User: Fold this.
Amino acid sequence: MGRSMLNITYRDRKTNIWGREQRKITDVFEQVRRRT
Assistant:
């Protein structure tokens, strides 16, 4: 789910750590959207 949300393919060879960082950023944006 996470990789598809970020439009990341397995060929990109992104590390799980990188993906986790990106997911944290998107989670923050989602929290801000919910507050407004």
The radius of gyration is 11 Å. The chain has a mean pLDDT of 75.
